[in-house]
Amino acid sequence: MFQIRKAIMAAAIGGSLLTGGAIGAIVAGPLAASAATSSPAATAATTTAAAATAPSGTFVPNENATHEAGESAAREAQENAGQVPTVP
Question: Are 47 and 40 a contacting pair, CB within 8 Å?
């Protein structure tokens, strides 16, 4: 009887460890992967690649007077040309 209880307890502990490990990998795996690749060089490359892709819609500039007051001349020129602004 003691041998059966011992085997059942070992199977329960092993199953619990495997289940916890699988759940942990599913939940924390993407977090660990993104943290491992979040170097300044990788971030710059990602930002550059994202800026180089064409947007999937039509750009509509914000012509609100409050917005226009704080806008640089370079940004306004890009908006007037129908481009998505890349300068502040």
Answer: no
Q: How far apart, in whole angstroms, are the C-alpha atoms of residue 39 and residue 17?
A: 32
Using alpha carbons only, how large is the chain's radius of gyration in Å? 27
Structure tokens at 68: 């226009």
- pLDDT tens for the chain, residues 1 to 88: 789 999 999 999 999 999 998 898 888 877 766 665 555 555 555 555 555 555 566 777 778 888 788 888 888 888 888 888 887 7
- pTM of the entire structure? 0.34
The torsion region of residue 82 among left (phi > 0), alpha (psi -120 to 50) and beta comes to left
User: For residues 74 and 87, what is the distance between their CA atoms, to the nearest angstrom?
Assistant: 7
